Amino acid sequence: MRHNTLTLYITTVLIWGSTWYVIKLQLGVVAPQVSVAYRFAVAAALLFAWCLIKRKDMRYGPRDHVWMAVQGLFLFSANYVIFYLATGLLTTGLVAVVFSTIVGWNIIFGRLFFATPLSAQMVLGAAFGMAGLALVFWPEMAAMSLQDQAVYGLLLCLVATVLASLGNMVSARNQMRGLPVLQVNAYGMAYGALFTFAYAKWSGLAFTWEPTVEYTLALLYLAVFGSIIAFGSYLTVLGRIGAGRAAYASVLFPVVALSLSMILENYSFTPAALGGAVLVFLGNVLVLAKPHHFKINRRP
């Protein structure tokens, strides 16, 4: 990857790895659907303000707006609402494990929609990462029973992950059509916020606010860093290296989350978790490295 691309990739991993903990601070008084709507409404407002300051062209045709709305629905609305709900039913570690399957979904959908070529190196790297995550979170996975609540939470995570992957595909399509990431994210997050507000209103949820410094700072962090900066970085990387390789960042999110847990929640690595972290790192190297092609030299 180019140096700038690597910087954007690392930025995405570090920020989104930290949001697992911050999302927990949003759960409680305010309904998860409403918190998601607040988050992307704030992010969209800030992005529009930035685009106006930078005099970005914000004029697009109806067809482009349809695709930006679809991206907003999948990437900035439905999947986040479902993930917030799932986080209330499962531990964040298990949610992170399920979300990491977006690597496989992106590879499948990329092949299906864009005929993206597959390499054994990419598949092997993804397998290493998934195996590593299984080791890291094995105690949580082993403790999960087949109670209705746990199964329901798991199904929610799978649905949300598929929606997020489809959102990745729409973003890739929009970039292929020459639509810039910054402006599309501004419109997409605005559409996503509108969809979520409408759903919350239709569901009869109260648009309350938790008047605490913790909730407000968490919302601002998720809007500015978790939404504007991280999505801008990630979707730019996705456009450059493809959805399959870009999505491998999701395999590293839980590792960052664990590191924060060591500081904030007194988490300690078990030997299995440490071995899993090593596998995740090796998988990351395989997926991000340039594929090697072996040639057989023949005599003329």
Question: Main traits of this protein?
Answer:
single chain; mainly alpha; 300 residues; disordered C terminus; globular
Note poorly predicted spans.
293-300
**Average pLDDT score:** 83
Largest sheet: none
Oligomerization state: single chain
Distinct helical segment count:
13
Strand content: under 5%
Tertiary shape: globular
Whole-number total of structural domains: 1
Supply Rg. Answer: 19 Å
Reading the helices and strands in chain order gives: HHHHHHHHHHHHH
Give the distance, in angstroms, between the N- and C-terminal Cα atoms.
36 Å
Q: What structural class do you assign from the helix and strand content?
A: mainly alpha
Report helical residue fraction: over 70%
| Total DSSP E strands | 0
Q: Would you mind describing this structure in some detail?
A:
The chain is mainly alpha-helical and 300 residues long. It has one domain. It contains 13 helices and no strands. Helix 1 runs antiparallel to helix 10 and helix 5 packs across helix 8. The longest helix has 29 residues. The C terminus is likely disordered.
